[in-house]
Amino acid sequence: MRMKNAPMPSAPGPSTPAPTAPAPSKPLFTPKLWVALFCAAAAVITGSLIRVTRLYQTTMAQADKLRAELQLEQAEKDRLTRDRDYMTTDAYIERAARMEYGYIYPNDIRFVAALDDADEDWDDPGFGQAVEVFADEE
Question: pTM of this prediction?
Answer without folding.
Answer: 0.44
